[in-house]
Amino acid sequence: MSVKGNEKDIARASSVDEKHHYQGEPDGSSIIAGSEDVTEHELATLRHVADRLPYTAWLVVIVEFAERWTYYGTTNIYNNYIQFDLPKGSNNGSVPKADRGGNVVAGALGQRQQKSFALRTFNSFFVYITPFIGGILADTMWGRYKTIMIFSIVCLAGHIILVGSATPASLEHPQTALGLLVLSITIMGLGAGAIKANVSPMIAEQYTGKLRKETLPSGEVVIKSPAVTIQSMYLWFYAAINLGSCGAISASFLARDNGYWVAFLVPTCIFVAVPFVLLAGRKHYVVTPPRGSILLETFRVIGFALGPRWSINPFETIRAIKRPDFWDPARPSYYGEGRVPAKMTWDDEFVGEVGRTLNACTVFLFFPVFWLCYSQIDGNLGTVAAGMTLHGTPNDLIQNLNPISIIIMIPIFDRVIYPFLRSRGINFSPIKRIYAGFLVAGLAMVYASVLESYQNKLSPCRGGEFDKQPAACKINDKHFATPLNVWIVSGPYILVGMAEIFASITSLEYAFTKAPKRMKSVVMAFAQFQNAVASALNFALVAVNVEAKFVWLFASFAIASWIVGTIFFFTFRTLDKRESELNAIGQGERQGFQNETAEDTTGVHKV
């Protein structure tokens, strides 16, 4: 979990089930390799706590906070901006002052629910495809620091275009404004995606501590565990993401009271701080240097292994891949001395790293269903809220309960729940945490389905000709709202927040710890790519993304989350017993690479 070469021993501290991997002397007096004189007996009996985080890690947290503020401060108000018309008497999307205490919602482009859903889904799809670009550039050419710096400028340019799209002059020509919006979404997606692939592994790289003992002021001797430290680090990193996303709270009020160009301008100004924060720690960041050939070598390893096993019958190919000797044709030792193909610039250890990494990454293939549940809080639940009694509350404000609940719950999980489970010897492993996330996400969808079913019974806009109207429907040219208070819709947002703590945060931790040092950005991009897959699935559901069908849509996602989550657990539960082995992927030095300097094999250096 640290970026040094002792993870196999370090990661063991986080798993009670793995003690048998470290048996040495019968009395437990063997020193754990790579630790600071920690014995196996001490590792097994002393309490494990998180170490102090370096200040460079907190600088990365600030970068993520500012970037997420600008992302959510814009995307969280896309639904109203795209879906609803300009309010009467408004030229910038704001609600006239006389109407702000009622149920009138802000709007601008008037494209209705399905087009709004399609554009927001495209935004989610694109922003989770582009991490591959940033990951590849960082791992092969620029390094994470330079990649983040360059794409922060790209992202800033997209924000400026977005502000221009929402000015009163642009909104006089809705199609022009819509075109500028799509352009800005594309540019910002490129920048945000590239940053996303690199900032997550970069924060964990800042911690380089070793497994060691420390005596607390109370006299208790504890183990400072890098494994627990990384887990804690990602909890606080995710807290920064959600604290930044609370910027959307101000965006909702700014759009309602001052118009959309002002609402988009504020996060743009905040984003200007990102390059300066990056520069502030330039000489102190711990980074992994890029190595140009590693991605190509990875594909070549897969090609060498797959070549002899390939069959026109896909079932034969799958059976061959599952064979224990599948990777042998990619190992130099398979050919014997003097017969190694010229293209093999790697050693046997690297083949093992590729194989174990790909096996671990299959964990992420189940996540699209989880992100389908999450995507419902991004807009569809906002549409549900638009049909309730608002009492002057912007309907797109409610979704900020998701990040707020995460910010409140993360310290509780980090300081109370997880330490309590560890103190009781309960191994709440990554696989179990992810499974819990699927279950809670399904529960959130059940809540949403039941709520929408009740909402339909109270609304005259359900049934017959009214089904074609937007959520904020009008009866006799007046906005109609059901008597349900808009804050009732908060339940799914809070439950999804808890699900994210279990599943999403753990996926960040899993992506970092299961990847070779020089491929962490690409593996992180693969983990985040599952969001794009979920968005692609959402594209296929555009036809049913109308409020009249929300009840069954939410219920279907609930059932899918529970079923897929259960399949996930029974498929990967054995990985818990291999946690330390998987965490050791790519942490030692490799031999046999061409043109690799001594500095390269250390894995880290100062910028």
Q: Widest sheet: strand order?
A: 1-3-2
Annotated CATH architecture? Up-down Bundle
The N- to C-terminal Cα distance equals 21 Å
Characterize the quaternary organization of these chains: single chain
| Number of alpha- plus pi-helical segments | 25
SS elements, strand count: 7
Would you state the CATH class? Answer: Mainly Alpha
Q: List the uncertain runs.
A: 1-23, 464-471, 588-607
Mean pLDDT: 79
Give the helix/strand class. mainly alpha
What would the CATH topology be?
A: Growth Hormone, Chain: A
Number of structural units classed as domains = 1
Task: Report the principal-axis shape.
Answer: globular
- Helix content class: 55-70%
Radius of gyration: 26 Å
> Approximately how much beta-strand content do the residues carry?
under 5%
Notes on the protein architecture:
The protein has 607 residues and is mostly helical. It has one domain: Up-down Bundle (Growth Hormone, Chain: A), CATH 1.20.1250.20. It has 25 helices and seven strands. A hairpin with a 5-residue loop joins strand 2 and strand 3. Helix 3 packs parallel to helix 9, helix 6 packs across helix 22 and helix 16 packs across helix 22. The longest helix has 35 residues. The chain starts with 6 loop residues before the first helix and ends with a strand. Its main location: membrane. Belongs to the major facilitator superfamily. Proton-dependent oligopeptide transporter (POT/PTR) (TC 2.A.17) family. One of its GO terms (cellular component) is membrane. InterPro entries: MFS_trans_sf (IPR036259), POT_fam (IPR000109), PTR2_symporter_CS (IPR018456).
